[in-house]
Amino acid sequence: MTLTGTPVASPWREARRQLERAAETLALDDGLHRMLAVPRRTIEVAVPIRCDDGTVRTFLGVRVQHSTTRGPAKGGLRYHPDVTVEEVKALAMWMTWKCAVVDIPYGGGKGAIVCDPAELSLGERERMTRRYASEIAPLIGPDRDILAPDMNTGEREMAWIMDTYSSVAGHPVGASVTGKPVIVGGSGPRRAATASGVVVCLREAVRIAGLRGPVRVAVSGYGNVGRLVAELLADDPEIAVVGIADVAGARYAADGLPIAAIGAELDAGTPLAEVPFGEPMPRDALLEADCDVLVPCAVSGVLDEHNAERVRARIVVEGANGPTTELADELLAASGVTVVPDILANAGGVVVSYYEWVQALQAMPWSDEEVATRLEGRMAAAFGQVRALALEYDVSLRRAALCLAVRRVADAHLARGLYP
Ligand SMILES: NC(=O)C1=CN([C@@H]2O[C@H](COP(=O)(O)OP(=O)(O)OC[C@H]3O[C@@H](n4cnc5c(N)ncnc54)[C@H](O)[C@@H]3O)[C@@H](O)[C@H]2O)C=CC1
Ligand SMILES: O=C(O)CCC(=O)C(=O)O
Fold first, then answer.
1. Which of 78, 152, 157, 194 to mutate to test the pocket of ligand 2 (most atoms within 8 A of CB)?
2. How does pLDDT run across 21-61, given as a tens digit for each residue?
3. Cα(149)–Cα(156) distance, rounded to whole angstroms?
4. How close is the Cα of 341 to the center of ligand 2, in Å?
5. Which of 56, 167, 285, 331 is most buried, by CB atoms within 10 Å?
6. Domain 192-340 has CATH 3.90.320.10
7. Ligand nearest to the backbone CA of 93
8. Distances from the Cα of 159 to the Cαs of 40, 128, 171, 177, in angstroms?
């Protein structure tokens, strides 16, 4: 199955516009604004591999370090056929704001290899990942830039990167990546961390909106983030997961889908669009389906000016990075839809990555309970701070989250004297 089908949007333009709007609200110094609008480093590398059939293919690899002001760059690695350097710049900038919103001592980064992983054998995928890691090795590491999973990458890729980086360094460097397998120092709760953070924000938003159960939730995108959001919500009697979608299609049932049974079907290899539960629905129709809360957990730009006015949910919780374009954001606000922005809603992953990195640096593992408790507390605190600022400035949660983040990064720049 190919992975194409990415909605067309310009995340980099969107990201810079968001910064511009936050700068206006904060009356940020123009020079500081311009500096924050440019990534510190954009690294493009050739990633040649020998394929199983003996031919050589060369992929484009990218790593963008948007900011290192509050700490090392931090962010995931994405494999996707449609990903562009510009999109990675946007994703890296959003990582800077995300780390600042939840107040962890990182800047922001993101990486990608332009490839369709569905076309690669396991061996080809490993050779590509290792070659990419060795090309960027001089510029990454525990104090410089720490990689983690993003779309179509996971624990396996992180273990390969850690191993390649450690070979270059000449000793094991567990803190060089996060989201690695538990057996090599990963954090058990990392796998569900992004989804757990999304669920904390969803519950807060539902509570504030005063929605009564069962609250009907639709989840678009059913990978690391989306599937776990649905599974975490499935046991709650106050919530019904009424719709789910992946790249190939959707299923919908007005009275709720049996999420555990669907999980068993998926694990047995049934495509999501063909599981024998609920009704089939075209993938993008789920975005407009009847529900109270919509949780986009796939690619950027799925909510745009063409469908925003048809969204029936009262709350959108952004599990994905950049799922809502600026125009869609305005249309949703005009129809009274509350949007919990990506840089807050999906920050749970990087929060637990931070805990994993701290544990690796200290060579001192924490219990899963401690990680989960800290995560929940940090997410709830960040939600509260963003909401308070939104009320104070009378702006959307997105603008408030950006203002909080941009102010923190700008203040750090000024404190370090990087900007006279
Ligand atoms: N994995 C993580 O810890 C974090 C991921 N994110 C963001 O969450 C989003 C999803 O990431 P993962 O779950 O890791 O990726 P994944 O690769 O595990 O899953 C992506 C899912 O989206 C589906 N999909 C792709 N295009 C789609 C479309 N147009 N409509 C509906 N479904 C579509 C895929 O079939 C798959 O089910 C991305 O935007 C990523 O940047 C954000 C924070 C952390
Ligand atoms: O866990 C991390 O370091 C970052 C995950 C990520 O790429 C994201 O939050 O978008």
1. 194
2. 999 999 999 999 999 999 999 999 999 999 999 999 999 99
3. 9
4. 15
5. 331
6. no
7. 2
8. 27, 13, 14, 8
Q: Where in the chain is the domain with CATH 3.40.50.10860?
A: 39-179
List residues near ligand 2 (CB under 6 A).
74-76, 95, 98, 148, 150, 178-179, 321, 346, 349-350, 353
Q: Rounded distance, CA 321 to CA 250, Å?
A: 20
Who lines ligand 1 at CB under 6 A? 5, 149-152, 194, 220-226, 245-247, 283, 297-299, 302, 319-321, 346, 349
Which residue carries 């070979």 as its tokens?
A: 167
Kindly report, as residue ranges, where domains of CATH 3.40.50.720 are found in the chain.
192-340
Q: Which residue has the tokens 């992946």?
A: 246
Which pairs count as long-range contacts for 276-280, CB under 8 Å and 24+ apart, including other chains?
277/251, 277/253, 278/243, 278/251, 278/252, 278/253, 279/251, 279/252, 279/253, 280/249, 280/250, 280/251
Buried b / exposed e along 114-129 (16+ C-beta atoms within 10 A): bbebeebeeebbbbbb
Nearest Cα residue to 64 out of 100, 112, 106, 16: 112
Q: Is the separation of the CB atoms in 78 and 115 below 8 Å?
A: no
Q: Which ligand is nearest to the CA of 11?
A: 1
Active site residues per annotation: 110
Which residues are annotated binding-site positions for NAD(+)? 194, 224
Which residues make up each annotated binding site for substrate?
Answer: 74, 98, 353
Per DSSP, helices labelled H in 59-142 are: 85-101, 122-136
ipTM score above 0.90: yes
Beta strand 239-246 with 215-220: parallel, antiparallel or unpaired?
parallel
* Residue entry with tokens 């979608």: 245
* 151 Cα to the center of ligand 1, angstroms: 5
Tell me the pLDDT tens digit for each residue of 168-189: 999 999 999 999 999 999 999 9
pLDDT tens digits, one per residue of 216-273:
999 999 999 999 999 999 989 999 999 999 999 999 999 999 999 999 999 999 999 9
Residues flagged as binding site: 74, 98, 194, 224, 353
Give, in words, the CATH class of 39-179: alpha beta
